[in-house]
Amino acid sequence: MSFNHHDPIPPNPWEIFPEADAAGLGSLQGKLEHWWQHCWWPYWLSLSPQQRAAWLADIRHPEDWREYVRLQCAFNGIDGEKI
Fold first, then answer.
1. What is the pLDDT of residues 2-19, one digit of tens each?
2. For position 66, what pLDDT does the model report?
3. Domain that holds residue 69
4. What is the C-alpha separation between 9 and 19, in angstroms, rounded?
């Protein structure tokens, strides 16, 4: 899957990088790091706290990716689920 840096809603991480194991991710590298820094994270930060909480609570999203986003939020001092 390709991605567009200008698309306001990027694809979910597991859609763009299906080979990535979120449960085993440590620091990001390569294409995943670039996409995360320039597409996903800016999008995530643009969401309201309510939208972030809804995304994290959505069971359609794989639990390992929801946990990874929670960890990134904690690492960056963001309460992803605070409403």
1. 445 455 788 999 999 898
2. 95
3. 48-83
4. 21
For the chain, how many structural domains are there in total?
1
The amino acid that residue 76 corresponds to is: N
Q: What is the residue whose two structure tokens read 């994290």?
A: 56
Global pTM value: 0.79
By residue count, the chain amounts to: 83
Q: Judge whether 74 lies within some domain.
A: yes
70 part of a folded domain: yes
- Residue 55 lies inside a defined structural domain of this protein: yes
CB 49 within 8 A of CB 76: no
In whole angstroms, give the CA distance from residue 15 to residue 83.
27
Encode pLDDT of 37-51 as tens digits: 889 999 999 999 999
Residue 56: inside a domain: yes
